[in-house]
UniProtKB/TrEMBL annotation:
Family: Belongs to the LysR transcriptional regulatory family.
Keywords annotated in UniProt: DNA-binding, Transcription, Transcription regulation
Organism: Pseudoduganella aquatica
GO molecular function: DNA binding; DNA-binding transcription factor activity
Entry protein name: LysR family transcriptional regulator
Segments forming domain HTH lysR-type: 6-63
């Protein structure tokens, strides 16, 4: 295959199909017919000598060659788009779809304000939520599975600040702290929360992976203590419901207690040991850094710091970019 003879329009089709994982949806996005998209992918297969996309019952599945090729294609197309996009950007006339990855509590905390902003300023903008099931969102961004990831990603910010070659960009939205959460009439509700009675209680852990070990267990191990984790769940809303109706206790970021929907049934106490601060970080790929629509989205999330501060007293707004 000679690059000089490659039809670059085929790469736009390839990017759309990889994004949608479905030929029909990609055709709609490109304003093409489905047979035209199929023909374009066939020509690209012949040019590259690889199957690229394999049909399945639910759409298409990329081959390893397609997975390896896509990040470079996306980055190149984003650079071209930024070069030819006018400097002026009218958000009221913009049409864009953003795929965001957040945990349920983070989404409940941020989405209402973002939706009000979109309804008011950007009627052509759509948002698609993708489940966040990991503390390491960089592979999702590198693959182009999502446009933005928001959440608590321990260690990622420090790595990004020291790795200037990484294509992932980062901004800290704010910092808060963890507290112990229990139902209002829990046996520990009216007594001092000591290290002893904390460790002897039954615990619930919010774990995306289902692994029964977290930051609390690491902190306890440093002081030669441990706790019994009776239950792990992967949603903060579920955690709130269970804790409000049992003798289990849990540890949550203070600013996310309200997102459980059980605020009236819960109380929180300061922990009898030290945990690192909990940070809410925003991550995106450099291919989107200059996109006017993406800039608008990021600026909206940045602007919600004041909302977060009012909603969750004790959090500290941050705007450190790495």
């Amino acid at each position: 295959m000679s690059f000089l003879t490659l039809d670059l329009n085929l790469l736009r089709v390839f990017d759309a199909v990889m994004t949608e994982q479905n030929l029909t949806r990609a055709a709609g996005h490109l304003a093409m017919t489905q047979p035209a998209v199929s023909n374009a992918i066939k020509r690209l297969r012949e040019s590259l000598g690889d199957e690229l996309l394999i049909r399945t019952a639910y759409g298409v599945k990329p081959t390893p060659r397609a997975e390896a090729l896509w990040p470079s294609v996306r980055s190149a197309l984003a650079s071209l788009e930024a070069a030819v996009t006018p400097e002026t950007f009218d958000v009221s006339k913009a049409h864009a779809t953003f795929r965001l990855a957040m945990a349920d509590a983070t989404a409940a905390f941020w989405l209402p304000s973002l939706m009000r902003s979109i309804e008011r300023e950007a009627p052509g903008v759509n948002v698609r939520m993708v489940p966040l099931t990991t503390r390491e969102p960089r592979p999702m961004l590198l693959r182009g599975d999502v446009d933005l990831a928001v959440g608590f990603f321990p260690g990622v910010a420090a790595q990004l600040s020291s790795d200037t070659s990484s294509p992932i960009r980062h901004e800290r939205l704010y910092s808060g702290h963890y507290v112990c959460v229990m139902r209002r009439d829990h046996p520990l509700a009216k007594v001092d929360l000591t290290l002893e009675n904390y460790c002897t209680a039954n615990h619930l852990l919010v774990s995306f992976s289902g692994r029964a070990h977290g930051l609390v267990d690491e902190a306890l191990a440093q002081i030669q203590r441990e706790r019994r984790i009776l239950l792990t769940v992967n949603q903060f809303f579920t955690a709130g419901r269970v804790v409000a109706n049992s003798d289990l206790i849990t540890v949550l970021p203070k600013h996310l207690i309200a997102s459980t929907g059980m605020t009236d049934a819960l109380i929180h106490k300061e922990l009898p040991f030290t945990l690192p601060a909990v940070h809410l970080d925003m991550l995106w790929h450099e291919r989107d850094a200059r996109s006017p629509a993406h800039k608008w989205l990021r600026s909206n999330l940045e602007g919600m710091n004041s909302v977060a501060q009012r909603t969750a007293p004790g959090t500290t707004p941050r705007s450190d970019t790495y």
